[in-house]
Amino acid sequence: MRINSFSFRVRYVETDQMGIVHHSSYVPYLEMGRIEWLRALGVSYMKMEENGIILPVISLQINYKKSALYDDLITVETRIKKMPLVKIEFEYRIFNEKKELLTEATTVLAFMDKATNKPIKCPEYILEKLRD
């Protein structure tokens, strides 16, 4: 499946007193990975929400391998495990500038109708882009 990568520098606010990225900071990194993966696919998360589809996280797993530090340039690689149905499962790998694996993670999100809060199938326009 398609892999999207993006890089950014760790900000001071994301670290603890020792300059190590706090474990809670990785959750937003994963969210940024998903948003950028969708954007690279040609899908706007904002437009999806405006059209009444939301994607709540229903499962999150993070395995920390090595610490990221303040001012590190880190890269988040994001891909999906399989074609989505009602759920979409993302896999992530986060690396530092030296290409050392820092973190592996997975999230599972459900496509939901914003008005009814009921699960729905993955929109066809997303499936079409994944088939290209």
TrEMBL record:
GTP-binding found in the keyword field: no
Record-linked Pfam families: 4HBT_2 (PF13279)
PROSITE patterns: 4HBCOA_THIOESTERASE
Keyword Magnesium: no
Keyword vocabulary terms for this entry: Hydrolase
Highest taxon listed in the record's lineage: Bacteria
PANTHER family assigned: 4-HYDROXYBENZOYL-COA THIOESTERASE FAMILY MEMBER (PTHR31793), NOVEL THIOESTERASE SUPERFAMILY DOMAIN AND SAPOSIN A-TYPE DOMAIN CONTAINING PROTEIN (0610012H03RIK) (PTHR31793:SF27)
Family designation: Belongs to the 4-hydroxybenzoyl-CoA thioesterase family.
Alphabetical list of NCBIfam families matching this protein: YbgC/FadM family acyl-CoA thioesterase
Full protein name: Acyl-CoA thioesterase
Lineage: Bacteria, Pseudomonadati, Bacteroidota, Flavobacteriia, Flavobacteriales
